[in-house]
């Protein structure tokens, strides 16, 4: 098809849609005439009247006839005022007054409507039942423009509250215009067929619109098909509309060529529902009432190829659509239009394009069925029975969302027993009871709490009972019992939970009157007792039976999961009063799955103290993008940042290059292997070449697709590897502003969060109070403020009156430390959390307003409604997952400065092991210069493996300037190197004894040695007086030469010595050899290579040296291992022998290093610690299999090692030192090989291939 023709057809389609909208909408303009004022008195009716002068006929607005308005005989919640407009009208507004010159007025009311004066429906807006606010005096008029118009003949006002000093009094008016429509009725056995003039047509466009009403849950609304298997079917299934579209020549109706879209719910309520289907090529819009689904139809054909017939109400030829068996529609259609053609009008005029199957009428008959709504668990309906009859027969229909509830109860005549008919776990059960004994508990049906109508038939004759649900004989129950059942005088439907039968007596302890069953909440209809239908009109007029807390002549059930307010794929379930969201595996939490469980950036994880590794990141917070796995580089290296894709644009630059250059890294550097090319891979070489580098422009990331086309070179090959998304830093996390005056503020566009909104930020202040942010509407508002030094309040109003959520802290929040605030409001509840304090919640009122409607600017750090703003700093302000740029706005705002210093006061504790916090403009960093540890938070242990004879010597004197020819006495020469205190920390693992762990020498032949004795005990030897023997202190600890990692801390202050082993055992010793360590010379790890005058035990340990792992060694501010490994060229250090950096200091039973680099994809539905790295970034199955294999290998190795150890002779252990060295070197190689394999596996887990 050429483009001109296509454009013309699209314009034709738009014109057709516009024409249809004008036809269906009817009189949309000037539809505000008074509908009530001109009606005769006979058009008015009411539940009751106080007197003839208070009759409903006097209820016209601004009229003073009679007593000046309507008032009922008694003021209670069962009163109503009804108006018959004579014919169906479109009602666009209502108005109310109180009784003229009286104290009688209504302060709130419900508005109901009906076509027939039966089967009423409550007016709803904002997807919930809405009570109108009424009058505050007798004569002022309160006018309401309806959000959506009502099309009905009858309207009813139901007072809910009234002036407590008066009674119910009303004068009313309705505004709108007459509503014209064409209707047609189907009896469930008929259908209407519209035949096109063309015999066969391939349609580019179709617009079908109609309204329908029915009491049946199933039936065909329309159907059209073609010869090649194409068809469209609109069908009502279990009260929901299903649109089935099939394109292509597959007559088996496979899932590949079918689309089945379901919309709506509870559509079998005998009220009008609108349907619109718009089809253009393969694009389809499907709308039911206010809910629309847009989709692209599948299939092999470009156009839907259909026959010339379109049938309404059923499929005219059974079996034409393959094996599909459908029920015809039983109900009414209104205003059926097909591409602007009124089908009902053609049918009424008996045009040739229309044919009929069965009986069709051009009117809509209203079934005389009166439903009853049980509003609460204490609602009940008491109906009389015929006492003493041998047979009990009761039937009814019900619908509900609740799994539990008491349906029916009654005493048994001539017995103190009785029976209960109740719902339990969605099944109907019977409980037969007599004092002290339950005779039977039988059940029928399943899943009966699905909101559909279900029928129940219960019968009993003497000792024989029957229970049938949904006329399904396969699930019916028949049983014989030992209790003779006779009809009682009263049957209770939906009886309150505290009542067993006809109610408990006022005195005495009658245990049989109690029951644990809750009352029924839902709807009932077609109640029959003794095969005689119950007249609910008589019940409503209190002529027959009695009731409490019921709504008669309407079913008030609503589907709270339509629309689905559970966000991010959360699953919705419901009860009569509320709905619930299952957020499992969504990555979100909260009442509506709104708030993310993962952080928005690596920087957020980092400031919580997490190390590098894989993490789930939710880059837009509560926005539509889901979480994804990235590798977070927490180090202070190059600022690498990869991000979610922004556009689908084609990029022609590669790793190491930049956009628009169209070169690889070698092309920019001029280092390509062939100078005429700008990429190595362009060279036509026989060997493999590569172009490697980082793609660092986050606006273009991540890479979602790589395309490699054929170069037309014979025998050429191409390969690619795409690494993980690396993330570091977050400018938004540290984006902050300082508010210096109480009148200063920043303003931003209006906060948009009608149904759900979340706000989070950090603040610090010394002020006692202040408003963090505020956004106002006409009546609605949202505000978060520091109300007092220890109290944060989140307040808002969505039309139900102001609500507050308060969090109180036991400590002051104005301590100039950073504090975190998170507030969320959705249609179910509002929540507020401050720091790690318990989260506080405030439930939304049932069936109240749900939309937050704001229209002013968002004020940050100030307020439009108060004078006192906020003094202090606000940082990382996020609204619905989007960061506000406080710094940019602060640059142009008086009284506000960008940035906020002082991060170390809050986050300095994240710097561990002697690391010092250093302020940065955006955040902070940890200076590990004087720590034995490394890493972003000084938590990474520096470890090294010492082989046989190896030694690390740290010379202290090189920190000082000496004069070789100085004649000064040595005591003054080394005065600055005299210590009265020292702190030593180290960790080690070894299996060799004796061993020298650490030795500190002096120019005065004083020394300190830390050794493992031959039996493996830890010994500390201080010699602070060259003329005395050393002080020797031995820890009372088991052998520490067990191959496990042990931590030692030694603190000396003068003669007091404290020793701590493995962070839990502490010992205290007193030195006798002196208090000063004079003229320290060097610190030695491993073997002492110099001539030293030491004691015999230290000499034995030194002769062995140390073979094993030393980790995180620190002597005061000196870290010799770190200096040797990382600063060997600049530090005063000498290394001898085999000495290699290792991760042996972090291995504890299982490889804990892997926990920093391998993490899990799994979501968590319950409470989790989102700050921890995720374990096992591979598939769970692989992890389990790998774990099993590892365990098996470990057991085999252990058994082998034990067998070898038993077999070997003791002489094996007395080999010479060289042999031992070889064994240790090979053991270290094996350890390194194992670590290398593990790390390689870990790195492989980090790779992603697209």
UniProtKB/TrEMBL annotation:
Its main location: membrane. Residues 593-637 form the Fibrinogen C-terminal domain. Residues 1149-1160, 1234-1243 have a biased composition (Polar residues). Disulfide bonds join 873-900. It is a single-pass type I membrane protein. SMART domains: EGF, FA58C, LamG. Residues 183-364, 370-555, 735-900, 959-1144 form the Laminin G domain. Keywords: Disulfide bond, EGF-like domain, Membrane, Repeat, Signal, Transmembrane, Transmembrane helix. InterPro entries: ConA-like_dom_sf, EGF, FA58C, Fibrinogen-like_C, Fibrinogen_a/b/g_C_dom, Galactose-bd-like_sf, Laminin_G, Neurexin-related_CASP. It is found in: Membrane. Residues 1-25 form the signal peptide. The chain crosses the membrane at residues 1183-1207. Residues 24-177 form the F5/8 type C domain. One of its GO terms (cellular component) is membrane. This is Contactin-associated protein-like 4.
């Amino acid at each position: 098809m050429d483009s001109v023709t296509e454009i013309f057809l699209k314009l034709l389609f738009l014109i057709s849609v516009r024409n249809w909208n004008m036809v269906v909408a009817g009189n949309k303009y000037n539809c505000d005439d008074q509908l009530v004022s001109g009606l005769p008195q006979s058009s008015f009716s009411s539940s009751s009247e106080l007197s003839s002068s208070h009759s409903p006929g006097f209820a016209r607005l601004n009229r003073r006839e009679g007593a000046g308005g309507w008032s009922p005989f008694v003021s209670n919640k069962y009163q109503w005022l009804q108006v018959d407009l004579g014919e169906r009208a479109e009602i666009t507004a209502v108005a109310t007054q109180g009784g003229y010159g009286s104290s009688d007025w209504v302060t709130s009311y419900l508005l109901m409507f009906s076509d027939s004066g039966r089967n009423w429906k409550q007016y709803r807006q904002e997807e919930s039942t809405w009570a109108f606010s009424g009058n505050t005096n007798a004569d002022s008029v309160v006018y309401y423009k309806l959000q959506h118009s009502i099309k009905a003949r009858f309207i009813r006002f139901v007072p809910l509250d009234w002036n407590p000093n008066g009674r119910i009094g009303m004068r009313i008016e309705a505004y709108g215009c007459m509503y014209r429509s064409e209707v047609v009725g189907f009896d469930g056995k008929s259908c209407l067929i519209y035949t096109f003039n063309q015999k066969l047509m391939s349609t580019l466009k179709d617009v079908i619109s109609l309204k329908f009403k029915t009491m049946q849950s199933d039936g065909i609304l329309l159907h059209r098909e073609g010869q090649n298997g194409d068809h469209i079917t609109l069908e009502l299934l279990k009260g929901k509309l299903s649109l089935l579209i099939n394109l292509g020549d597959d007559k088996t109706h496979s899932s590949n060529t079918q689309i089945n879209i379901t919309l709506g719910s509870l559509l079998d309520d005998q009220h009008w529902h609108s349907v619109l289907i718009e089809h253009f090529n393969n694009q389809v819009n499907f709308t039911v009432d206010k809910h629309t689904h847009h989709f692209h139809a599948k299939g092999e054909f470009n156009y839907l190829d259909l026959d010339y017939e379109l049938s309404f109400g059923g499929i005219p030829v059974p079996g034409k659509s393959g094996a599909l068996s459908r029920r015809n529609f039983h109900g009414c259609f209104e205003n059926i239009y097909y591409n602007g053609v009124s089908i009902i009008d053609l049918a009424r005029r008996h045009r040739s394009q229309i044919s009929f199957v069965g009986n069709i009428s051009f009117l809509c008959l209203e079934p005389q069925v009166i439903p009853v709504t049980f509003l609460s668990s204490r609602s009940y309906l008491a109906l009389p029975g015929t006492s003493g009859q041998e047979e009990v027969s009761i039937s009814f229909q019900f619908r509900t969302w609740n799994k539990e509830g008491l349906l029916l109860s009654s005493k048994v005549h001539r017995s103190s027993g009785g029976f209960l008919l109740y719902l339990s776990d969605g099944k109907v059960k019977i409980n037969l009871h007599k004092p002290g004994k339950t005779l039977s508990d039988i059940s029928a049906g399943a899943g009966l709490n699905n909101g559909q109508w279900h029928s129940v038939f219960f019968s009993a004759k003497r000792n024989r009972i029957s229970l049938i649900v949904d006329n399904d004989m396969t699930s019916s129950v028949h049983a014989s019992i030992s209790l003779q059942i006779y009809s009682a005088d009263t049957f209770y439907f939906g009886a309150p939970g505290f009542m067993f039968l006809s109610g408990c007596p006022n005195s005495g302890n009658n245990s049989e009157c109690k029951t644990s069953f809750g009352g029924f909440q839902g709807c009932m209809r077609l109640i029959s007792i003794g095969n005689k239908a119950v007249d609910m009109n008589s019940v409503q007029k209190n002529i027959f039976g009695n009731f409490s807390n019921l709504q008669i002549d309407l079913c008030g059930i609503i589907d709270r999961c339509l629309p689905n307010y559970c966000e991010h794929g959360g699953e919705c379930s419901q009860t009569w009063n509320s709905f619930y969201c299952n957020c499992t595996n969504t990555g979100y939490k909260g009442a509506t799955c709104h708030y993310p469980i993962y952080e928005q950036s690596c920087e957020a994880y980092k400031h919580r103290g997490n190390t590098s590794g894989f993490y789930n990141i939710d880059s837009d917070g509560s926005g539509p993008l889901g979480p994804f796995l990235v590798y977070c580089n927490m180090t202070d290296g190059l600022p690498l940042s990869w991000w979610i894709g922004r556009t689908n644009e084609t990029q022609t630059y590669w790793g190491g290059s930049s956009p628009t250059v169209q070169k690889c890294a070698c092309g920019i550097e001029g280092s390509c292997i062939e100078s005429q090319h700008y990429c190595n891979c362009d060279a036509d070489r026989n060997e493999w070449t590569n172009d490697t580098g980082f793609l660092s422009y986050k606006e273009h990331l991540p890479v979602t697709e790589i395309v490699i086309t054929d170069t037309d070179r014979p025998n050429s090959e191409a390969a690619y590897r795409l690494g993980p998304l690396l993330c570091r830093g977050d400018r938004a996390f540290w984006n902050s502003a300082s508010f210096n005056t109480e009148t200063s503020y920043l303003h931003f566009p209006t906060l948009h969060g009608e149904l759900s909104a979340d706000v989070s930020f950090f603040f610090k202040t010394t002020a006692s109070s202040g408003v963090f942010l505020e956004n106002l509407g006409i009546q609605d508002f949202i505000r978060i403020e520091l109300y007092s030094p220890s109290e944060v309040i989140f307040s808002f109003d969505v039309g139900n009156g102001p609500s507050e959520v308060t969090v109180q802290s036991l400590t002051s929040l104005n301590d100039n430390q950073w504090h975190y605030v998170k507030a969320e409001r959705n249609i179910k509840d509002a929540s507020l959390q401050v720091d790690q304090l318990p989260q506080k919640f405030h439930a939304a009122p049932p069936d109240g307003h749900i939309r937050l409607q704001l229209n002013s600017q968002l004020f940050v750090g100030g307020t439009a409604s108060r004078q006192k703003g906020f003094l202090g700093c606000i940082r990382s302000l996020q609204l619905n997952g989007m960061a506000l740029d406080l710094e940019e706005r602060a640059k142009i705002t008086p009284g506000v400065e960008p940035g906020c210093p002082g991060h170390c006061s809050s986050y300095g504790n994240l710097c561990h092991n002697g690391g010092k916090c250093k302020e940065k403009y955006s955040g902070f960093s940890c200076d590990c210069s004087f720590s034995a540890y490394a890493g972003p938070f000084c938590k990474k242990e520096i470890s090294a493996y010492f082989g046989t004879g190896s030694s690390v010597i740290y010379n202290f004197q090189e920190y000082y300037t000496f004069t070789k020819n100085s004649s000064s006495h040595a005591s003054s020469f080394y005065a600055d190197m005299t210590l009265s205190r020292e702190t030593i920390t180290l960790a080690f693992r070894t299996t060799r004894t004796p061993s020298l762990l650490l030795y500190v020498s002096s120019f005065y032949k004083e020394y300190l040695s830390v050794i493992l004795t031959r039996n493996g005990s830890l010994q500390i030897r201080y010699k602070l007086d060259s003329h005395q023997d050393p002080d020797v202190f031995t820890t009372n600890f088991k052998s520490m030469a067990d191959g496990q990692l042990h931590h030692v801390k030694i603190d000396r202050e003068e003669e007091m010595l404290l020793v701590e082993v493995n962070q839990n055992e502490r010992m205290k010793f007193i030195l006798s050899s002196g208090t000063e360590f004079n003229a320290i010379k060097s610190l030695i790890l491993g073997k002492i290579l110099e001539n030293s005058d030491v004691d015999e035990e230290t000499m034995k340990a030194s002769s062995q040296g140390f073979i094993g792992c030393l980790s995180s060694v620190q002597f005061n501010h000196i870290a010799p291992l770190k200096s040797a490994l990382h600063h060997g060229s600049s530090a005063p250090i000498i290394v001898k022998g085999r000495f290699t950096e290792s991760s042996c200091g972090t291995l504890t039973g299982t490889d804990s290093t892997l926990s920093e680099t391998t993490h899990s994809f799994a979501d968590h539905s319950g409470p989790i610690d989102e700050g921890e790295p995720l374990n096992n970034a591979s598939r769970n199955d692989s992890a389990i299999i790998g774990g099993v294999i590892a365990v098996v290998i470990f057991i085999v190795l252990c058994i082998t090692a034990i067998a070898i150890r038993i077999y070997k002779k003791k002489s094996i252990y007395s080999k010479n030192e060289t042999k031992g060295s070889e064994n240790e070197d090979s053991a270290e190689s094996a350890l390194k090989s194992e670590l290398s394999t593990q790390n390689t596996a870990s790195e492989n887990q980090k790779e992603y291939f697209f």
